[in-house]
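Bit of a strange request maybe. I'm writing a small parser for structure token strings and I need a real example to test against, not something I typed by hand. Could someone generate the tokens for this chain?
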Amino acid sequence: MSPLLKIRSERDQMSAIERRIADFLLDNAHLLRDYSSQQLANALGISQSSVVKFSQKLGYKGYPDLKYSIGQAVARGDGGDDNVTSEVRRDDPHAALAEDLWYLKAQAEAETRLINPPERIDAIAAAIQQAGKVFIIGLGEDGIPARAFATRLSMLGILTVHYVDAILMQAGVSSAAPGDVLLVFSEHGRQPALCQISRLFRERFGKVISVSRHTPNPLRAHADAALLVSAHDERRHIEPLLYQCALQHLLDLIFILLCDGSEDRRSQLDFNFERMQDLLDS
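Reply from user aminoacidic:
Good idea to test on real output. This should exercise your parser:
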């Protein structure tokens, strides 16, 4: 696993000093061989012990091991640095733009996969598979992936209750039963209404799964499990694209697990596809 990829994926959970170290390593990975731990500390105005503790927190014996690992990653070309792009360039500016965007999306997907361990994904897929009903809500732009995922679950024959209105969902959760699942889509996890809905749902012994960014937020505090997305870019028009791409890949993975986990679900999906095609052809 690339150490720079690991640093990027865990940056949101770091302290202020750790983020300063992380940002320096990400921005200067190709120059790191010229820095000792003391020189790095001096450059950042922090103590040498902070650099050592940062390295150990990432799972390395010390700074020399971290520096060596980063050097190897940069040499392989998998450093996870935003400034590193494919060396293959064409004259077509659209091709270069598409290449850069594809690289950033792949990076966001890799970071997202890193912070969602397989056992968590399996547990969430199993909860959805076994649920009597699956409630799904997302407000604003979060409603787009929420609606799409609700449709996919319905195609598998999973009883899905989907709302785009928080007030209606508060009324809807009154029918929740133990074992039911609530998926709450909220990129930043700060809407008080969604937190209230999550509390109500848990009071009825349902399982709440939050879908948000990999940052501390109120919604995650009210969830039994969390699907986390890591997607970062300083450009405001690019970052939402990376978030949507990484989130979609994560949801696609869960959908495939649901399909592979039940032959009956796959048969129901095939039947629904055929029925929809018949309606389109008629």
